[in-house]
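Worked example 2:
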Amino acid sequence: MSDAYVRSSYHHGITTIEFFHPQSNSLPGKILDELAQAIHGAGNDMETKLVILRSAGEKAFCAGASFDELAAIQNEEQGLEFFSGFAHVINAIRTCPKFVIARIQGKCVGGGVGIAAAADYAIAMEGADVKLSELAVGIGPFVVGPAVERKIGVAAFSQLAIDATMWRNAEWARKKGLYAEMHHTTADMDEAIQKLSHTLVHSSPEAMAAMKKIFWKGTEHWNQLLVERAAISGKLVLSDFTKQAIAKFKKK
């Protein structure tokens, strides 16, 4: 499993999308593009009743942006293109007419928190701690912010965004509403996902699609908003502060 990938598999009405990157499931642009395409594809597939989004491995669900790609950004256009990748994934989840269930088996950082927040229902395991680390490298959680704020509210989002070095544990995330459920073992988590999936696959697709539209009411402008936010991050990533901060993180 040395090479990054996004893989989709279909079984009895469920499309499971799995992503992997050897650096704690971080997200370079290629993976972001493939994730967005896979989610769009599942949403347009008439046979798919439910989408399960998961990452490979046991430790980290997603470490957020790839530091290698952040360090390689040379201008605002490249910055916009990279951060728009996160916008496309969040918007793909938002506009997918099927419920997206996220399996959160490990820690979430930055964009990983955004993906967990964008999911319609997140089932996590104990130890799936969360952190919005963007401010620590001089950026700020601009693209994922709307998704996180929508799910857990302004107060909790502000706490995560301002104290960018502090981990919040999975129980904190559950109480704030980021996680719908938290389980103590992988077996319990997967059993809960299986039970919910079985129920949803046998539910009305039309009713679920209509419910999803209601849940996401008021976000119709996100196609534009998240790209505007990506432009802010794309500009800030060019600062000396950010370049020095990323260099320090990469040395660790």
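The chain has one domain: 5-187. The first strand starts at residue 5 and ends at 11.
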